[in-house]
Amino acid sequence: MKILEIYKYLDKLSPFDTQEKWDNSGLLLGEYSQEIKKIALSIDIDEDLINSLENDTLLITHHPIIFTGLKQIHFDKYPSNLIQKMIKKNISNIAMHTNFDISHLNDYVVKEILGYKIVKKDGFITYFNVDDDFEAFSKKISIAFGLTQTKCVISHKSLKKIAIITGSGCSLLKSIEADCFLTGDIKYHDAMEAKSINLSLIDIGHFESEQFFAQILLKHLKILGLEVIIASSKNPFTYI
After folding, report:
1. For 100-209, which CATH class?
2. Bridge partners (DSSP) listed for residue 162
């Protein structure tokens, strides 16, 4: 199957034109006319992942390896060092980032991982209701995402309405209308702002909250009749 056929299928599944203006989803490495027999799925790209893949594989990732404009291609610097290895093995890459967040990832996490019903969607923000105290709810969240430690801002002891953005969503902090906001990459000043507006926060991790990308997409790609494997990159963080 040609990459173009696969791209068109992915575009129907999660339209690339719904990505954010700053995003870089789509075909990032390769050519549409290339014939593909094997697809690998991963959140990101790292050296171990590239080494594990066969030549001529199409790698579909959540995060774009090329995010901002490249002014130089230095093979001893990221991401050029990884791109060089991919070119040598003729590994193509399609990224499905913010378009997939909107179409699939956030909803899947709420319904399939956390087990709640979605009550509202507002762009990237997905809302659901609970009836729990903060400590009990935060423990459920830690277990669901496999968190070894849970960074929180506690502004409410009991929770009713929850908002979630997988990955990194604090840029939308001011738009949240809930008792508690779940997202990753929460910074110090995000926490200070949340306390000032009486909003609880739970940091669900960037990798941890998006680790389900491959298993979601795998179900949809089986229809293509190609070999599709999950070969995810590793979380770059180690907690000790």
Report:
1. alpha beta
2. 128, 180
